[in-house]
Specification:
66% of the residues lie in helices and 0% in strands. The chain contains 15 helices and no strands.
Length: 299
C-alpha cells in the first residue's frame, strides 16, 4: 500500500481497520493541512493516541513531537523525551511542522525509477549535516537531523510507487546505520551512555563502525559497569581489532583499550595475562598511540 499517495478516503478506511501506518500518515496530514486534508490538530492528536494504544512506534514519535513543540498540546519536554524513548528515537524529535513541506514552487517529481536515487541523495545530505552539527557541538541539531533522515528512510521504504534496486536498498540500509552511528556518537559526547548503547545495538552499526566498540568500553569504564559487561566489551574489542574499517588511529584506540582491560583483570576469564596486554599495547603503539607507548615501559 502506498500510504503517502493514498487518498484521504482510503486512509480513513484503513484507520477504521486499525492500520498503524495509515493512522500516522493521516495524523501528519491533519497537522500540516496537506494533501487535501484541512488542518485539524485535535484529530492529529486523537489519531496518534489511537496509534499509541496499539503500541505503534511512529505514533510515539508523533506525540513526542507534538509535546516538544507545543503543537496543539502544551509543551512538555519530559513527556516528549519519554515518548522518544518509547519510539526508539533520539531526543529532541523532529519538528512536525517541518515534515514534508513542499517548496513554494516545487520541481516536477522525478520519474518513478529515479525516485530512489533522489531520496538517497537527500538523505545523504541530511546525514552529512547531522555529523557536521555533532562535530561543532550542536547536539540538539545533530539529533534532529538524524531523526529526520531516519523518517525519510522509513517513508521511502514504505512507498510502493518507487522501484528500489538491490544496490540502492543497500545504500539506504547504510544511510540508516550511519544515522544511528551519529546518534550514538552524539549520545557519547553528551555522556548519555544508555542512549549510546541503544543506538550501537542497532543492526550492523558496530559492523559498519567498529570503533563504536571502543566508545562502549570507554563509557562502561567511566560508569564502572559490572564485570560481565566489561568482559563482553573485551570480547567485542578483540573481535574488531583487525577490522579493515578501522583507521590506523582507531585501531590504536581499540588495541590500547584491550590492554587496559586485561591489566584491569577483565581478561582473566579468557586466560589473558600481562604478556597479552603487552602485545596489544605494542600494536597500539605501532599505530601511533602515545598512551600505549607509555604503558609498554611499565609492563
Amino acid at each position: 500500500m502506498d500510504y503517502l499517495n493514498a487518498t484521504n478516503e482510503q486512509l480513513e478506511q484503513l484507520v477504521n481497520n486499525k492500520d498503524g501506518y495509515a493512522i500516522c500518515e493521516l495524523a501528519e496530514r491533519c497537522i500540516l493541512g496537506s494533501k487535501g486534508h484541512e488542518q485539524n490538530l485535535m484529530r492529529a492528536y486523537q489519531l496518534y493516541h489511537k496509534g499509541e494504544k496499539m503500541g505503534f512506534s511512529e505514533a510515539y514519535a508523533g506525540l513526542a513531537s507534538m509535546y516538544e513543540y507545543g503543537v496543539y498540546l502544551a509543551k512538555n519536554q519530559k513527556l516528549a523525551a519519554e515518548y522518544c524513548n518509547k519510539a526508539g528515537i533520539a531526543y529532541p524529535p523532529p519538528n512536525p511542522l517541518s515534515w514534508r513541506m513542499p517548496p513554494p514552487n516545487p520541481e516536477p517529481m522525478p520519474a518513478s525509477g529515479d525516485n530512489a536515487a533522489f531520496a538517497i541523495t537527500d538523505i545523504e545530505k541530511c546525514n552529512a549535516s547531522a555529523e557536521e552539527a555533532r562535530k561543532q557541538g550542536d547536539y540538539y541539531r545533530a539529533k534532529e537531523l538524524c531523526n529526520n533522515a531516519i523518517n525519510k528512510i522509513n517513508d521511502t521504504l514504505r512507498r510502493t510507487d518507487i522501484f528500489i534496486q538491490e544496490n540502492e536498498r543497500d545504500e539506504i540500509d547504510n544511510l540508516k546505520i550511519n544515522a544511528y552511528w551519529t546518534l550514538a556518537f552524539t549520545a557519547y559526547n553528551e555522556q548519555q551512555f544508555d542512549e549510546m548503547d541503544r543506538y550501537l545495538a542497532q543492526d550492523d552499526v558496530i559492523a559498519l563502525h567498529p570503533w563504536g566498540a571502543y566508545l562502549k568500553a570507554v563509557a562502561h569504564r567511566i560508569t564502572q559497569a559490572p564485570q560481565n559487561v566489561l568482559q563482553q566489551d573485551l570480547q567485542l574489542l578483540v573481535a574488531v581489532s583487525n577490522n579493515s574499517r578501522l583507521s590506523k588511529e582507531e585501531k590504536g584506540d581499540v588495541c590500547q583499550m584491550i590492554g587496559d582491560l586485561i591489566l584491569d583483570g577483565i581478561g582473566n576469564e579468557f586466560n589473558y595475562n600481562r604478556s597479552n596486554a603487552y602485545e596489544y599495547y605494542k600494536m597500539a603503539a605501532e599505530c601511533g598511540n602515545a598512551y600505549a607507548s607509555e604503558q609498554l615501559s611499565k609492563i
